[in-house]
Write a structure and sequence with these properties.
four-stranded antiparallel beta sheet; alpha+beta; Transferase(Phosphotransferase), domain 1; three-stranded antiparallel beta sheet; globular; Ubiquitin-like (UB roll)
C-alpha cells in the first residue's frame, strides 16, 4: 500500500506540473516511470543559479531593485495559482523552493509537491515548513492566504540573509512564537521602514492579509527611483547575518528533509522520498498523534492537543530513528508547551507505540535507554506518591530500578533494590490496609502496577532486540572477514 500511495502522490504532482503554464511557475518538460528503481523521473527547465536561498548565500550585496523584482515575480506566480477555480495553494513556499536565473533576474516558483487544489472554502490538512507556516495552518482552517504569509517570510530572508526564527532551538519554540503572534527576531534587523512595512503587511492575521494581486499594487513595489537602481540593500551586522544564514537550516519539524536540493534538468524522485504516505495514528482523550514515514531514518509526527480550556493545538516535528527517543522528544515538547510530567509519560508512550507500528524492528538508540528507564521509574514513583495520603511514608522502601548499559557489548542488565517480583501495589498494601483506603485508591494502585509492568516488559523487549541485532551484526562482520 505504501508504494501505491507514494505513486499516487507523485503522479498528482506530475499532473499538476503539466497543467500549469505561467512565466513564474517552473516549466515541466517531460516525465517517465522507472519501475526497476521505483522512481518517477521529471525533467524541468534548468536554473543556473539554483534556489533564491543559494543565490543569496553567494551574493552578499543585492540591490533593492532586485529584491522588488523578485517579489513582483513571486506574487504574479502566486496570483496565477490562487486564480484557479478552485484555487491552488502551494503550502510550502520558501526561498529553497523559488529558483532563479541570475543573468536576467528571472525567478520561478517550484517544488509543488505539497500543493493542494482547494475543493472547499477552507483546507484542513496541516503541512509545510514551520518557519514559513502561517498561524492559521495550525488550526487546520486556512485558505490560499497562507502562501502570502510564507511570501512575507521569504521577503524577510531575502532582505536579512537570515532564516526566519533562527533564534529558536526547536520546532516547539517556533510553534509557540507563531501561535502567540511573535514575529521572527530578524524582523527587527530590517532598518528600511518601507521594506519592513511591506513585510509586516504579509504577516498580518488572515482576516487582514491582502491577496497577491493587491500586494502587487502596493506603493513599495510600484515605486523605483534612481537611488534604488545603484544602492545595495544595507544589512545590519552583515558578518553575523552571513554566519546565521550558513547555520540556519530548516528545523527537524520540516516536512521536506531535502529542501536544499535545487531544481535541475533531470530530477529523479525516489518513491521513498515522498513523505506523509506510510502513516499511522494513535490517540488518547487529550492527545492524538499521527506519524508519516519519510524515509528509512525519519518520521514526520503531528501531535494534536485538545485543551478543554482553549482551542486545539497542532505541533509538528521530525523523529530521527538513529538518535531520538520518545522520552527526549516528549520532554522537549513539555518544556516549551507547559505539559505536566503525566502528559510527558502519555506522549512518550504514544510516540513509542506509533514508531513501533511504523517500524516493526525499531530499537531506540542505546544512549537513550538509560534515560528512558530512569524517566519511566521516576514517573511511576511520582504517580505512586501522589496517589497515597500525605501521612503514608514512601521514602527508603520505595522500589527503584537501575539500568546499566555496557559500552563493550549490547547486554543491558536490569537490577532492583528489592525483589523484581515485588509490585508497587503490594508494597503499599500494608499501609493501605492500616489506613483503610477506599477501593478507588486500590484501583489507582493497580493501574500504577500495570503501568510499571508494561514499562518493564517494553524494556525487556528492547533488551532482547538489541542483543539480537548485536549478534547479527557480529556474525555478518565475521562472515565478511572470512571471505
Amino acid at each position: 500500500m505504501q508504494t501505491h500511495h507514494q505513486l499516487e502522490r507523485l503522479y498528482s504532482e506530475v499532473h499538476l506540473l503539466k497543467s500549469l503554464k505561467h512565466e513564474n511557475i517552473i516549466k515541466f518538460r517531460n516525465s517517465w516511470v522507472d519501475d526497476k528503481n521505483k522512481t518517477i523521473n521529471m525533467i524541468t527547465e534548468l536554473f543556473t543559479s539554483g534556489s533564491l536561498r543559494q543565490y543569496r548565500k553567494k551574493h552578499k550585496n543585492v540591490d533593492i531593485k532586485a529584491i522588488k523584482n523578485w517579489a513582483r515575480q513571486i506574487l504574479r506566480g502566486l496570483h496565477y495559482l490562487h486564480s484557479h477555480n478552485p484555487p491552488i495553494i502551494h503550502r510550502d513556499l520558501k526561498c529553497d523552493n523559488i529558483f532563479v536565473n541570475g543573468n536576467n533576474g528571472e525567478v520561478k516558483i517550484g517544488d509543488l509537491g505539497l500543493a493542494i487544489v482547494m475543493q472547499q472554502p477552507t483546507a484542513r490538512s496541516v503541512i509545510g515548513t514551520p518557519e514559513f507556516m502561517a498561524p492559521e495552518l495550525y488550526d487546520e482552517e486556512y485558505n490560499e492566504l497562507v502562501d502570502i504569509y510564507s511570501f512575507g517570510m521569504c521577503m524577510l530572508e531575502m532582505v536579512t540573509c537570515e532564516y526566519p526564527y533562527s533564534e529558536c532551538k526547536n520546532p516547539a519554540q517556533i510553534y509557540k512564537k507563531v501561535t502567540s503572534g511573535i514575529k521572527p527576531a530578524s524582523l527587527s534587523k530590517v532598518h528600511d521602514s518601507q521594506v519592513k512595512q511591506f513585510i509586516e503587511k504579509c504577516l498580518l492575521p488572515a482576516s487582514m492579509r491582502l491577496p497577491a494581486m493587491e500586494l502587487l499594487k502596493d506603493p513599495f513595489l510600484l515605486t523605483e527611483n534612481a537611488k534604488e537602481l545603484v544602492v545595495p540593500l544595507q544589512f545590519p551586522n552583515l558578518a553575523s547575518n552571513l554566519v546565521n544564514l550558513t547555520n540556519s537550516e530548516p528545523h527537524p519539524m520540516e516536512t521536506d528533509p531535502n529542501s536544499k536540493k535545487p531544481s535541475v534538468n533531470s530530477c529523479p524522485k525516489s518513491l521513498s522520498d515522498a513523505s506523509q504516505l506510510s502513516s499511522f495514528e494513535t490517540e488518547t482523550d487529550k492527545f492524538r498523534l499521527r506519524g508519516d514515514k519519510n524515509d528509512d531514518n525519519t518520521i514526520s509526527l503531528t501531535l494534536r492537543i485538545d485543551d478543554h480550556c482553549g482551542p486545539a493545538r497542532n505541533i509538528h516535528f521530525t523523529f530521527y530513528l538513529d538518535s531520538d527517543t520518545a522520552n527526549s522528544i516528549a520532554e522537549e515538547m513539555a518544556e516549551q508547551l507547559g505539559l505536566s510530567n503525566e502528559d510527558v509519560s502519555v506522549v512518550a508512550g504514544l510516540i513509542d507505540n506509533l514508531i513501533t507500528k511504523l517500524v516493526s524492528n525499531w530499537v531506540p538508540p542505546v544512549s537513550g535507554l538509560s534515560s528512558l528507564a530512569n524517566h519511566l521509574c521516576q514517573s511511576v514513583e511520582a504517580t505512586a506518591k501522589e496517589s497515597v495520603n500525605s501521612d503514608i511514608s514512601a521514602d527508603s522502601d520505595a522500589q527503584s530500578v537501575l539500568i546499566t548499559v555496557s559500552r563493550n557489548n549490547s547486554d543491558i542488565s536490569l537490577m532492583d533494590s528489592c525483589s523484581i517480583n515485588m509490585s508497587i501495589s503490594s508494597f503499599f498494601s500494608q499501609s493501605v490496609a492500616e489506613k483503610d483506603q477506599s477501593d478507588e485508591l486500590k484501583l489507582e494502585l493497580d493501574a500504577i502496577d500495570s503501568q510499571f509492568h508494561h514499562c518493564f516488559q517494553e524494556l525487556m523487549r528492547m533488551r532482547e532486540e538489541a542483543i539480537e541485532n548485536a549478534k547479527k551484526k557480529w556474525l555478518t562482520k565475521n562472515r565478511v572477514s572470512a571471505v
